[in-house]
Amino acid sequence: MADLETLLFVTAVWRHGDRTPTSLLPSDKQNTVEMIKEKFGGLGQLTELGALQQFELGILLRDRYSGFLPDEYSKNEIGYRSSYYNRTKMSILANQQGMFASNGQNAPKLPLTENVSKTGIVIKYLQKGEDPYVFDEVDCPVGLYFSTWVQALNYKCYIN
């Protein structure tokens, strides 16, 4: 539990919950893509496990900062910032549901938008590529090398 006598401000940073793959190997069958689209809405989307992870994190944050957080969500007291990706925004919705869940509320099910607070939730984000603080893509020499290597003709023989 937080020391409420000295606590003035809280900033929490976390990643999105579990997600579907952002890309598939060329050998993956088309029905894999169709299944991911049908069940989760596409590649790189939050899964039900990811929503549950965020819901539980929200409960943990509520327990940690009980007495400091308001009883109900208030856009004037709590702010959220996200990357442009849908999975990060959906993670915030699940986290907020856990943080402000009434006792006995069930874990979230996708789609999360059906259970959003009636007061509305404000999520600030910039368009992809415009946010200097939330990285959309990172230039990583090892990642670039690996990507180039995978695309090489002599490697393609290993991909079924």
Automatic annotation (TrEMBL):
Stored InterPro entries: Acid_Pase_AS, His_Pase_clade-2, His_PPase_superfam, Histidine_acid_phosphatase
Matches recorded under Gene3D superfamilies: Phosphoglycerate mutase-like
Transmembrane segments: none
Protein family: Belongs to the histidine acid phosphatase family.
Source organism: Meloidogyne incognita
Enzyme Commission identifier(s): 3.1.3.2
Catalytic function, reaction form: a phosphate monoester + H2O = an alcohol + phosphate
Keyword match Cell inner membrane: no
Protein name: acid phosphatase
Pfam families registered for this protein in UniProt: His_Phos_2 (PF00328)
Keyword entries, A-Z: Disulfide bond, Glycoprotein, Hydrolase, Signal
Lineage: superkingdom: Eukaryota
Top EC class, one word: hydrolase
Family matches, as CDD domains: HP_HAP_like
Keyword Heme among UniProt keywords: no
An annotated Gene Ontology molecular function: acid phosphatase activity
